[in-house]
């Protein structure tokens, strides 16, 4: 109703005149809302940068939504800026490129309607996919650096209860530690609320000194030597999320639901690639469904005497197998990125196609004044490249503004963006843009009634 008040009052001739000329500036309300969205996104980015764990992730989700809203609201302004920036390159080209630059600068609203869906597709897909690649990259590094054992023994049905003792008696073995992998529930505060978070946990058969010989957890505070009954070690991210420090007691629930409050005697830094909680094996007795250990880490000796216990590999082979399993588990993220990116890509293609079809009269006029069919298609191709490049650049900027504080809070590292994967995203956006413009343009130029 508010938008229709002014058109309802003006004269028909004035309405037609204004409709034929694009307004130089968007409406005041739209501009104010867009600036507010930018301010809100920037503020949330600052909050995410100073937060950790789930708080950083939750704040970052607001960042991406607010910045995408800002792009939609401030689209004409951003489009004019992009047209001016990329137009500098086009004006140095031939007549088709110069005309494309002039068209883009003059028709900023039309350009904005084409850029916005590409921005959404690029921002959504990049955020979802590169969030996983960043976590996976850090986890792989931590796992590779954290396993210092010479041999790693695993078995599909679990290892014998005496596997560590039998391995320790093998010639040349310096240390043998079996690990029972499970989960505990830890109350974690996030967004002003407390929820139970499933946390990967390893039950260690040997002492802290023996564990240090086969696994480097990157201890930041305390000592693993004190890990034992009623005493645990935790990852620094979990310590931050639960506001727990050295000497504090961490409330948690064991796998069978039993409540416990062990003392934190060490804080380490490799809780993403390795389990975030380390406790002695005896503390889990009677609280897990299976008493069999999952992994046996052995330092020193040969692989031959360990073969009867299970499948023997080295640290790098074990890390590679774990990374493969992690990639198989990432299909949900990739599927979500494909669905959301696909919807945004369809919107972008539809917008570009409709934009070209609405310009049939303009394209036919260019032919009448002497432009060849090839020159018109080249002009549209340059416009499409400008739209795609602007959309990719803005979408990438939003994704990086979102991912940087999120990954700093979750992993302590900057986002990891595989170059080939990013190039594939950008190339797909450009290819879709070219196809969505070129194909309907060819049909429009064949239409004599355009």
TrEMBL record:
Q: Which UniProt keywords apply?
A: Cell membrane, Membrane, Transmembrane, Transmembrane helix
Per the record, the major location class is membrane
Q: Where are the transmembrane segments?
A: 32-52, 64-90, 111-131, 331-358, 379-401, 421-445
Q: Which residues form the ABC3 transporter permease C-terminal domain?
A: 335-446
Q: InterPro entries attached here?
A: ABC3_permease_C, Macrolide_Exporter_MacB
> Could you name the domain of life of the organism this protein comes from?
Bacteria
**GO terms for CC?**
plasma membrane
MF GO annotations: transmembrane transporter activity
Query: Which protein, by its recorded name, is this?
Result: ABC transporter permease
Give the organism, scientific name. Answer: Streptomyces rubrogriseus
